[in-house]
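Same chain as my last thread, 177 residues:
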Amino acid sequence: MFRRHFKEVSSREIGQYIADLVRARGDKRFSVICVGTPIVAFDMLGPLLGSLLLETCPDILLEGTLWRPVTAAHVAGVAAVAAEMPHTVVAVDSALSKYMDRIGEITIEAKPLEPGTGVGKALPSIGDISIAGTVGISGQNAAYELVYDMAVVLARALAYAHLILATEGGDDDENRY
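reply #2:
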């Protein structure tokens, strides 16, 4: 498991970790599912990340943007499709914490994402690798700038992981991320 504050780690380090997890599953490619809604700050990490990633890396397989979010209403259908994918699925969502010192942490695990748990929703698990960005404390809203900054770091990390796996060495255009 990877757990670090997004300001204390580089996009390249996160991207390398994601690429290593994908490789450990025997894959050389992955798709990304960004869960959340752009309506409230504490749940917009996924759609914002998806939109940024689409601009940075348009050839990556992606679901969930500001314009086409994967909300709680869509999770079951998207999870069913993701389960049939022939390659690794990375699922991303916002997370809430009970503790102030966890705000800003990125947690990456080699297990499915459990969307909605922070707000008491029972939704299907999704993906093979989960990324959760802790954006606030339960019961409070999140700061837009924190969510945006975290989305930028994760978009660069996922684009870098995509580049590593696509080039099988990771050194091509390494300063881009």
